[in-house]
Design goal:
β1 and β2 form a beta hairpin. The chain starts with 22 loop residues before the first helix and ends in a 5-residue tail after the last strand. It is α+β, with helices and mostly antiparallel strands. It is elongated and about 95 Å long. It has 1 helix and 6 strands.
């Protein structure tokens, strides 16, 4: 079997410019692709590293309502369990809503005990009978 060279009598059209096609062009494209893959890999690794550091570092706070009880038409007692750093100060926001889902009481509670787990019962004063005791969230205040 014989190979036909570009621009010989058997192929129609003009001969392509030298260096545009052929082994040299593929090598340049492969090199650019390799460089782009290395740069993308470094960026992905840096992003994963930053995300892991941000997730695992710092004082994380978690809390949950263990129980609640409507003591009267003006008070709801909420049993709150907070997990935090031993020396961290945390502020948790609690609320109570009535049967129509209207907020009837809200309270910010500062947890500054030097312990990793704090169980406390908080009394939230209400404007009407509260049906629930809810935790809206906890955070570590800046400057503490």
């Amino acid at each position: 079997m014989t190979a036909v060279q570009a621009g010989t009598a058997g192929t129609p059209g003009p001969t392509p410019p030298a260096g545009r096609y052929g082994p040299g062009a593929d090598a340049r494209a492969d090199r650019r692709l390799r460089i782009a893959a290395v740069v993308a890999g470094v960026l992905v690794a840096a992003g994963v590293g930053w995300y892991g550091y941000a997730t695992l570092s710092g004082d994380k706070v978690s809390a949950q309502v263990v129980a609640f009880e409507a003591v009267s038409d003006q008070e709801v007692q909420i049993h709150l369990e907070v997990h935090k750093g031993e020396d961290a100060v945390t502020v948790c926001t609690l609320r109570s809503v009535d049967a129509d889902h209207n907020e009837v009481g809200r309270k910010d509670v500062r947890i500054d005990r030097h312990a990793k787990q704090v169980d406390t019962v908080v009394t939230v004063r209400t404007t009407a009978r509260g049906e629930t005791g809810e935790l809206l969230g906890c955070s570590t205040p800046s400057g503490s």
